């Protein structure tokens, strides 16, 4: 599976940005899709994930109530809507995919496929 991410950029604190990631390739509908981020000097962090069928989602605690992950199953594109951005959201964001045999799985997939990172910078 190949992942093409877009979006990101510079935004003020309290603003919004949306990231998109299109999954392509063979059996692209067999993958859990997610977003990770890595801030300077910090480890990569799992931010959000969505199951193959788009029903179940995961959000890390620090973004709950502000970020939403969604998926267009027709074209296997996943979106990360980021609202009420904070300076601590500044990071390089990566789209990722993990194969799963379970349509509703969102927690057990191992993410082994990565897209290029996209920079999100939030100014305070």
Folded structure, characterized:
The structure is a single chain. By secondary structure, the chain is an all-beta fold. The chain has no helices and eleven strands. It has strands spanning 2-7, 9-12, 17-24, 31-38, 45-50, 57-59, 67-72, 77-82, 91-99, 113-114, 118-123. The strands form two sheets. Strands 2, 4, 5, 6, 9, 10 and 11 form a seven-stranded mixed beta sheet that branches. The termini are far apart.
Low-confidence stretches: none
Quaternary structure type: single chain
Q: How many strands, what sense, and barrel or not for the largest sheet?
A: 7 strands, mixed
The count of helical stretches stands at 0
Strand content bin: over 45%
Mean pLDDT: 96
Rg to the nearest angstrom?
A: 14 Å
Question: Residue share in helices?
Answer: under 10%
- Let me know the number of strands: 11
Based on secondary structure, the structural category is mainly beta
End-to-end C-alpha gap:
37 Å
Shape: globular
Reading the helices and strands in chain order gives EEEEEEEEEEE
Please describe the structure with a list of short key phrases separated by commas or semicolons.
124 residues, mainly beta, 7-stranded mixed beta sheet, 4-stranded antiparallel beta sheet, globular
Secondary structure layout plus pairing:
Blueprint: E1 2-7, E2 9-12, E3 17-24, E4 31-38, E5 45-50, E6 57-59, E7 67-72, E8 77-82, E9 91-99, E10 113-114, E11 118-123
